[in-house]
Amino acid sequence: PPAGTPCTFFPVDLADAAATDAVLAEATRRFAVENVVNNAGVPMPEAVDKVSFAALDTVIGVNVRAAIQCVQACLPAMRAKKRGRIVSIGSRAALGKAERTSYSFAKGGLVSISRTWALELGRDGITVNVVAPGPVATEILVANNPQSYLDRMAAQSPVGRLGTADDVAAAIAFFLSPDAGFITGQVLYVCGGTSIGQAPV
């Protein structure tokens, strides 16, 4: 973890279900977790005729199965407090993006299960929402693409720039706050307007 980060880190490979269970058991033994942010993603781009089912299993495991595990592990403490916040990080790609069969399927699945959880958990004081980023200038994106590609992405955004990690974090912080207690089962696109014309009204 970065120096000075005020957190306790529990490293784990979320693709490993058994290891994830073990780490969650330790984390929830030490802490009564009431906020869960499912922020994991493995895109593995591929055209439909090139989809590897081993890769599909990994993408679903990291994006969806691990999210379910995290929520299951933390629910007892949330229910005991009658208060909880669950925020999953989706993607604008769930609305459709070429060469993202596995990824769009997984992120769309997060939206569906979040709406289901919102119905199940609302009476327990637990809200469930999704933050769906569009083009964000992450370290990985910047490191693995030429500047000309990044410039084209920025130009296609109605706000004329790529998003930042802080843009996404601000949306997550809102959903975790007491101010968002009457909002559940929703998807907030943090995308610079790139979902306009694609997301339903």
Fold topology:
Elements: H1 17-30, E1 35-38, H2 53-81, E2 84-89, H3 101-121, E3 126-133, H4 139-143, H5 147-156, H6 165-176, E4 187-190
Parallel strand pairs: 1-2, 2-3, 3-4
Characterization of the model:
The protein is an alpha/beta fold. Helix content is 45%, strand content 11%. The chain contains six helices and four strands; from the N terminus they run H-E-H-E-H-E-H-H-H-E. It has helices at 17-30, 53-81, 101-121, 139-143, 147-156, 165-176; strands at residues 35-38, 84-89, 126-133, 187-190. It has a four-stranded parallel beta sheet with strand order 1-2-3-4, with helices on both faces. Strand 1 (35-38), helix 2 and strand 2 form a beta-alpha-beta unit. Helix 1 packs parallel to helix 2 and helix 2 runs parallel beside helix 3. The N and C termini lie far apart (40 Å). The mean pLDDT is 93.
Intertermini distance: 40 Å
Rg over C-alpha atoms, rounded to the nearest angstrom: 17 Å
What's the helix count? 6
Which strand order do you get reading across the main beta sheet? 1-2-3-4
Unreliable segments of 5+ consecutive residues? none
Shape: globular
* Order of helical and strand elements: HEHEHEHHHE
What's the rounded overall pLDDT mean?
A: 93
Q: Main beta sheet: strand number and arrangement? A: 4 strands, parallel
Strand runs, count? 4
Amount of helix? 40-55%
Strand content: 5-15%
Helix/strand-derived category reads alpha/beta
